[in-house]
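Notebook entry, cofactor series.
This is the third protein in the set we're modelling with a bound small molecule. For this one the ligand is magnesium ion. I'm keeping the input format identical across the series so the outputs can be compared line by line later. Sequence and SMILES below, as received.
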Amino acid sequence: MTSNPYQDDRGNKDRSITRPAATHMGDPVKPGGSAVRVEGENPFLIGHEMTGGYGTGADILHACTIAVEPGEIAVIVGPNGAGKSTAMKAVFGMLNLRDGHVLLDGEDISALSPQARVGKGMGFVPQTSNIFTSLTVEENLEMGAFIRRDDISPTMEQVYTLFPILKDKRHQAAGELSGGQRQQVAVGRALMTQPKVLMLDEPTAGVSPIVMDELFDRIIEVARTGIPILMVEQNARQALEIADKGYVLVQGRNAYTGTGKELLADPDVRKSFLGG
Ligand SMILES: Nc1ncnc2c1ncn2[C@@H]1O[C@H](COP(=O)(O)OP(=O)(O)OP(=O)(O)O)[C@@H](O)[C@H]1O
Ligand SMILES: [Mg+2]
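Returned structure with ligand:
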């Protein structure tokens, strides 16, 4: 046995970085009381048939559904402007939905602010501006833990174990780090809240293929500690290879949904979104 939750890559048994998460939820219930049944699925987090846009502008999302099940990695892919980030923001509460709802562990959280959702256990790493560049690495991690009143040092050690380079650079301004290291800071910051579910919008944006592979390995390690991961990825093929579930979004709609394997094998998906 090891005290490092990220070292042993067998199974999703170590949940020490998470708060206890329910493994089963009943049928989600709409505010009106009617049950929403999602056949064959048991999502821990779901944005269900979300419709809405920014402010008073036109709808960007059209009955768009994205979800992640306990212990799994779900990946959202699709062309630029498809609404991937918008769907993530909607799940995190940064958009006023005209229709649809968001359920976390069976609870309808559609009306909650983003901060309240963090309090409920959601960790979100946005696509842009996801670190404080003028603060040190360690200060970024401390900021991540803003909602906590307990001792954050064990979690910080776990983040440093996951991303050892961050420990070496902990007193350096985060803005001085490389792209891949900055993404590690962003993910580490989100982990500092001890999330029950982690949402990542393009965690490998702008990094080399080798760094991308390393980041994916770390993300898999996080998932294996029991934190379900809902992730948008531009590197569609590689991301679907590690995905339990994949969503292809096009123009704010679900175009294809399946296991990562199914989508990788689908001739239409291959031709249109994976370069053949
Ligand atoms: N803050 C905003 N206000 C108004 N419209 C926005 C805003 N952010 C995005 N949009 C619009 O919403 C649509 C979807 O954008 P979104 O960023 O969700 O796409 P995406 O799939 O994440 O694209 P990318 O792959 O480039 O990150 C686009 O037409 C975009 O112009
Ligand atoms: Mg985006």
